[in-house]
Amino acid sequence: MFTEKIEKDRERAAARTGGKAKGKDDGLTPEQRRERDGKALQEKQAKKAAGAGGSAGAGTGDANKAKK
C-alpha cells in the first residue's frame, strides 16, 4: 500500500516535469561532459570577443582600475 502511494507520487511528479528527469543521464562520461562543456564555453567566449571586436578594452576590467 505504501509503495503504491510512492508510485503514484512519482507518476504525478513526472507528469509535472513533462517526463524529463533532470540530471546527468545524457550517456556521457564525466570526461566527455567536460570536453563538451569546455568546447561550448570556448565558442561562447569567441563569439563574445568577436562581438566586442571594435571596443577597446571591452571586458578586461581596465576601466574599473583606472577609476580607483
Task: Write up this protein.
This is Small EDRK-rich factor-like N-terminal domain-containing protein. InterPro entries: SERF-like_N (IPR007513), SERF1/2-like (IPR040211). Belongs to the SERF family. The chain has about 70 residues and is mostly helical. The chain has one domain (about 1-50). It is about 65% helix and about 0% strand. The chain contains three helices and no strands. It has helices at about 1-15, 30-50, 60-65. It is elongated and about 65 Å long. It starts with a helix and ends with a helix. The mean pLDDT is about 80.
Sheet with most strands: none
The helix-and-strand class reads: mainly alpha
Which stretches are poorly predicted, pLDDT < 50 over at least 5 residues? none
Oligomer: single chain
Order of helices and strands: HHH
Radius of gyration, Cα only, in angstroms? 23 Å
Care to count the β-strands?
0
Mean pLDDT value: 79
Secondary structure tally, helices: 3
Helix content: 55-70%
Share in β-strands: under 5%
| N→C terminal distance | 68 Å
How would the global form be characterised? elongated
Please give the domain count.
1
